[in-house]
Amino acid sequence: MQTDVLRVLRATAASWWRHKELRRTGQLELARRLERKTVLRDLGYLRQAATLPNAHVICGEGGTFIHLDWTTVSTLAPIERFPLATLAVARGTPFIDIRPVTDVIAFANLPRVARDGSGDPEPSGSGKSVSLTTYIDTVEALGAWIINDPRSHQSP
Known about the structure:
single chain; alpha/beta; five-stranded mixed β-sheet
């Protein structure tokens, strides 16, 4: 699997318009250096997605976001066109697909996912945070689809 991950990350980095332009103008060494830097950065994101307790990928009409503690990696594209997010989900990162959610007001009023795995004692209102599992319970009730559900790994 590691070889496949590297292959996807390298192909993605090489497809960036800037890297293509550098290659076209003969600046091959700079293009290679930037591509390597991009691959190493993305490997770091994948490592964080696999180890952080509240890391998750969320996809909606506004794009796809990989939430990694204090870092968010995003694109305006759906997950199907965001290879890094697809790889993270394939490697087990929880994925929340909010595209089926129709109650945008209820969704907008949801608390955020806590960065450290804990939650506020009263998880409602502006600026409040909850654990990832509590967030998934709430957003699933609104119609979201969940893949790699972390709740299934917990004991009652």
